[in-house]
Amino acid sequence: MKKWFFRFLPFILLSLIIFSTVDLAGIIRRFLAETFGEGVYNGAFVAVAGFLAFSVYRVRRQADRFRLRLFIMILVFLLYALALSQLKYAVEKIHYLEYGLLCVLAIRALSGDCRLPAALLLSLVLTFSIGLVDEFLQHLHPDRVAEFRDVFTNVNAGVLGLALYLTQERFVIRRPLFLPFEKRACLVALASALVLSFAFVETVHGFGYRIVDSEKAFFYSSFTGSGLLNLDKDLKNGLSVPPAYENEAERHLFQRNFYQANRFMINKTEYYMEPGKSLRENMLLEKYFPAFLDKKAARWDDSTLAAIHRAGDWYLNTRWNSRVKETIIVSVPAWIMRLGFLLCLGLCGFFWRRLKK
């Protein structure tokens, strides 16, 4: 047990660091960007390049099939660079590296007891689960939003991290691929991840619909357009509303304020502000969430509204969809998603019973 604990200690510590920085992410982001400029986040590319150079040196000295391994390393590095360049917000590049490293630490801890296929699967499931807990924590923070798609971004980072790690290791594929205890561990991990995912979607993210608000604007919601208006009436009359409704309203409000007065510096004296998108989010809030705006005392006064209109009216003639809930999870009917969760859990139970025979 003691030996197991020390093998997993680096993984546990990095997980705790990720969780503990949920409250500090905004402060760290502003400090780095305003002290060193937006280019500081390009350090993510430097970090990956440095790890690649170290990997080449290590493989050159220790491993066989150097040319094949070098080719795979370069390919993975290019995929990493492409993924980092596609991330919308620069701070996410650091987050991407964290989860790549987290997955590597997981497989290093598991390799002592598990064969390679089980270690690979368990490390990815662990990375997925840690990412999901991170999103739960972000949901509890007033200045952060929880996105299911971010979890898959984390897993994608883990896959690339594993690929880079495996190019440095000597490993043998033995049969059977999974020992009995590994099969049980994988089933428990998969079932736990499914339950955690279902809880997140039901209580935080919600299912939903694509709502066309006008000829050039649409958004995704956990509720129909009429459902949103009815819930707004309930909130106005002091009745309880589902947590997913308030979470959705919080996220629209966050995006409105983010676009209006975000103090995240891109370059000296230049900030990331988009009044047109802020205006769109405000129009959506005033139409579907007015009682929530009143509850939070978050309505714009006339002078603010006029200033945003002057700066962002031109954007009303362009196509727009809200970034809030812009994920694949809401484009599938809720009953299909729930049925899918139950079927997957049923399969886990079926294979568990077979293993016990």
What labels would you give this structure?
5% strand; two-stranded antiparallel sheet; mainly alpha; 14 helices; globular
Cα gyration radius (Å) = 23 Å
Into which percentage range does the β-strand content fall? 5-15%
What number of domains?
2
Walk across the major sheet and give the strand order.
1-2-5
Give the N-to-C terminal Cα separation: 28 Å
Characterise the protein shown here:
- With 357 residues, the chain is mostly helical.
- It has two domains: 2-178, no CATH class; 209-331, no CATH class.
- It is built from 14 helices and five strands.
- The protein has helices at residues 2-20, 25-36, 43-62, 66-86, 91-110, 116-140, 148-166, 180-205, 225-236, 243-261, 275-288, 290-295, 302-312, 334-356; strands at 209-214, 217-221, 265-267, 270-271, 320-321.
- The strands form two sheets. The chain has a three-stranded mixed β-sheet with strand order 1-2-5, with helices on one face. A two-stranded antiparallel sheet has the order 3-4.
- β3 and β4 form a beta hairpin.
- α5 crosses α7 and α8 (180-205) packs antiparallel against α14.
- The radius of gyration is 23 Å and the shape is globular.
- The model has no long low-confidence stretch (mean pLDDT 81).
